[in-house]
Amino acid sequence: MKAEEFSNALQNVDDRFIAGAARPQSAGKTIRFPWKRWAAAAACLCLLGASAFAARGFLLPAETEPIVQTAPAADSPNGMRRYMNWNGMRYEFLENGAVYQIPAELLGDAVGTLTHDIAADPEANAGKDLSSTYALGGTVYELKEYDAQFRVAVGYDGGYCICQSVAFTDGTPLDPAEYFALAGFPGNIQSVSVFDHGGSSLLAQLPKEETEQFVAALAQSVPARLSDEQYQKIGQAQREGRSFRVTFDLDDGTGYGFYVIPSLDIAMFGDGRYTTPADFSDAFGGFFAGLQQDAPPIY
After folding, report:
1. How far apart are CA 43 and CA 262, in angstroms?
2. Nearest residue to 30 (alpha-carbon basis) of 219, 182, 174
3. For the residues of 87-126, what is the DSSP string, one character each?
4. 134 in Cβ contact with 71 (< 8 Å)
5. Distance between CA atoms of 239 and 174, rounded to whole angstroms?
6. pLDDT tens digits for range 215-229
7. pLDDT at position 53 over 90
8. Strand 131-132 relative to strand 116-117: parallel, antiparallel, unpaired?
9. Using an 8 Å Cβ cutoff, are 131 and 115 in contact?
10. CA 240/CA 103 separation, integer angstroms
């Protein structure tokens, strides 16, 4: 994806999602994984041991072919971000609907068909299960290497799209610790790449031996309750080249991308904005401070 396209995609995220991520949550309402809360806590204790995830099957067998992008996404005629809803989760289409070749051994069970057109009637359909802005009529499949609350695939027009969860359909933000455990991090991360904000220039790669500490620190992030002034500071940091695109390069050949603004102690996972812990700033603030990028052009 071109840098300007990537930047535009970020800026075009529906304001309702940002508002939902910034909205203070009532006591006790953090994430709707009640039975997984304890499992996630245990998983966090194991973040420093990739073998725990390997035992769960997150590491691909040596003979398994990787997932390969075979075609870029076509332009969206209505300018709407491509996303879908399933099982209480909102998923965005990776690369805005790029086509992937998924090996048969990685494709799981079919769980439904995208039926409800969000673009045609946002008010009626935006919160429905199996609703979508794209790939209507496509079949939703589980992916064997991932929990379905992290990623699913959509069979559409002779190929597959990959959809990655970004929030709950009611606007509740994701919990990074539980989310990373569902994704299999850090056990399935081959490397951590840091790009400029637009995602076009590789600035550095994190030393391999620091990957587990990096993931464990980010997993402690909490949803940020941002004021208008803080949102303005985020925009200023992006304009000044202090926002970085980080990609976890995964075993299956795909990547998981997000943003960090270390100078503001901010990370952006999916549709949420999060405050990073002191552990992250202490351990990696110097690493990011040493990276230089050109400020994006002002249009």
Report:
1. 25
2. 174
3. TTEEEEEGGGT-EEE--GGGEEEEEEE--EETTT-HHHHT
4. no
5. 26
6. 999 999 999 999 999
7. no
8. parallel
9. yes
10. 42
Both structure tokens of 55: 């035992």
Q: What span, in angstroms and rounded, lies between the C-alpha atoms of 41 and 27? A: 19
Given a contact cutoff of 8 angstroms between Cβ atoms, the answer to whether 91 and 165 are in contact is: yes
Calculate mean pLDDT across residues 76-103. 92
Positive or negative, the Cα torsion across 225, 269, 208, 52? Answer: positive
Predicted local confidence at residue 298, as pLDDT: 60
**In sequence order, what DSSP letters do the residues of the chain get, joined into one string?**
--HHHHHHHHHTS-HHHHHHHHSPPPTT-S-S-TTHHHHHHHHHHTTT-HHHHHHTT-SPPTTPPPPEEEEPPPPPTT----EEEETTEEEEEGGGT-EEE--GGGEEEEEEE--EETTT-HHHHTTSTTEESS-TTPEEEEETTS-TTTEEEEEETTEEEEEEEEEETTSPPP-HHHHHHHHTTTTTEEEEEEE-TTS-SEEEE--GGGHHHHHHHHTT-EE----HHHHHHHHHHHHTT--EEEEEEETTS-EEEEEEEGGGTEEEETTEEEEPPHHHHHHHHHHHHT---PPPPP-
Q: What is the CA radius of gyration of the chain?
A: 18
For the record, the structure tokens of 62 come out as: 């040596």
Answer for the pair 196, 257: CB distance below 8 angstroms, yes or no.
no
pTM: 0.76
Tokens of 4: 């300007």
- Helix 36-45 with 176-183: angle, nearest 10 deg: 80
